[in-house]
Write a structure and sequence with these properties.
This protein is of the alpha/beta class. It folds into 2 domains: 5-211, Rossmann fold (3-Layer(aba) Sandwich); 216-316, Helicase, Ruva Protein, domain 3, CATH 1.10.8.80. The protein is globular, with a radius of gyration of 20 Å. The chain has helices spanning 5-17, 22-34, 48-58, 74-78, 112-124, 159-162, 176-188, 204-214, 221-233, 237-240, 254-270, 278-289, 297-301, 306-316; strands spanning 37-41, 63-67, 79-84, 89-94, 101-105, 126-129, 132-135, 141-146, 165-170, 248-250, 294-295. Strand 3 and strand 4 (89-94) form a beta hairpin. A 5-stranded parallel sheet has the order 2-5-8-1-9. It is built from 14 helices and 11 strands. The protein starts with a helix and ends with a helix. The longest helix is centred in the C-terminal third of the chain and has 17 residues, at 254-270. Bound molecules: adenosine-5'-diphosphate and magnesium ion (MG). Magnesium ion binds at residues 48-49, 105.
């Protein structure tokens, strides 16, 4: 049986590279354990690329980074059939999607065709090229970064794709002390690459084994009901928060309920419990739900965002 201690080692290892950003590091380990994709949002320079690189190295995963641009083609992700003159046949050359961890950097700069190739991979765990469908590695995990939407040349990802991300994590600037420490670490590192020289603390097969153990975590029926009520409340806002009644254009789907419960089980496991507590749900609800809620213009006008709504719902809905 793979040991939970490996995960604590992993979390500690990430902390030797990244200063602060505690919630981010916790969520990455939870997502790895829950088997979910993660969308990281924040301005440049907040260690997004660095943390993904550190994670991939620490878990000994095959890893590739792809910079998403307006001229990226689906084949640049999936790979393609290449004519081999020596044999006179076509041969499939796998693309970056066939790695265990894919860093999709600035995901919201690529056109819809690329997004749909990525969607098939994220949703079905497979890639189809030239009518042939191929399975992706068991561990396959997309870590995507997105610049805040107001930046030029970016657009909102399709809802169906956003729904495939277990978490959307919003990154914040470090405080003064943290930034001093960041600069120190960068000065000590070779060309500022603080993640260089990391070694693996666990292997992909161990992660898969740990995921099996997460499946055994117990969820009381009352807690299950609570989690699902929080999710469905985003589709019934007027019942809970009549003053904001029709601000949500589209609420979170059942996939969000699955994601919330699954990640709560992973959080419980990491915390060395074999049962979920309401705190697991409350802690993760924001990161599970914020990207799955589409607000209308009246919300924007009143300066209300998904986080405001989620925390209000958590305040109102009775905890078990
Ligand atoms: N919290 C942090 N901890 C450690 N290094 C950081 C942190 N925030 C920023 N950096 C450093 O800042 C630089 C930019 O990081 P990078 O990962 O390229 O940012 P991003 O991908 O978000 O634009 C790197 O040298 C990185 O080491
Ligand atoms: Mg980057």
């Amino acid at each position: 049986m793979a040991d939970i201690k490996l995960l604590h080692d992993l979390r500690a290892r990430l902390g030797t590279v990244i200063v602060g950003q505690e919630a981010l590091l916790d969520r990455l380990v939870i997502a790895l354990l829950a088997g979910g994709h993660v969308l990281l949002e924040g301005p440049p320079g907040l260690a997004k690329t660095t943390v993904v690189h550190a994670l991939a190295t620490s878990v000994d995963a095959q890893y590739q980074r792809v910079q998403f641009t307006p001229d990226l083609m689906p084949g640049d992700l999936t790979g393609s059939d290449i004519y081999d003159a020596s044999t006179g046949t076509f041969r499939f050359i796998p693309g970056p999607l066939f790695h265990e961890i894919l860093l999709a950097d600035e995901i919201n700069r690529a056109p819809p065709k690329v997004q749909s190739a990525l969607l098939e991979a994220m949703a079905e765990h497979q890639v189809t090229v030239g009518g042939v469908t191929r399975a992706l590695p068991l561990l396959f995990m997309v870590l995507a970064t997105q610049n805040p939407l107001e930046q030029s040349g970016t657009y909102r990802l399709p809802e169906a794709q956003l729904d495939r991300f277990l978490f959307q994590i919003i990154l914040d600037y470090p405080d003064l002390e943290q930034e001093i420490e960041i600069s120190r670490r960068a000065r000590k590192a070779h060309e500022g690459h603080v993640e260089e020289g990391l070694t693996a603390v666990l292997k992909p097969v161990e992660i898969l084994a740990l995921r099996e153990q997460v499946n055994e975590i117990f969820i009381d029926e009352k807690i299950e009901r609570y989690a699902v009520e929080v999710v469905t409340a985003t589709r019934n806002l007027s019942k809970y928060l009549p003053q904001w009644g029709d601000m949500i254009q589209t609420g979170a789907s059942p996939r969000a309920s699955i994601a919330l419960l699954r990640s709560a089980m992973a959080r419980a496991f990491l915390d060395d419990r074999d049962y979920v507590i309401p705190e697991d749900i409350i802690e993760l609800a924001g990161d599970v739900l914020r990207h799955r809620i589409v607000l209308d213009f009246s919300a924007q006008a009143e300066d209300i965002n998904a986080d405001t709504i989620i925390s209000s719902l958590l305040n109102i809905i009775n905890q078990p």
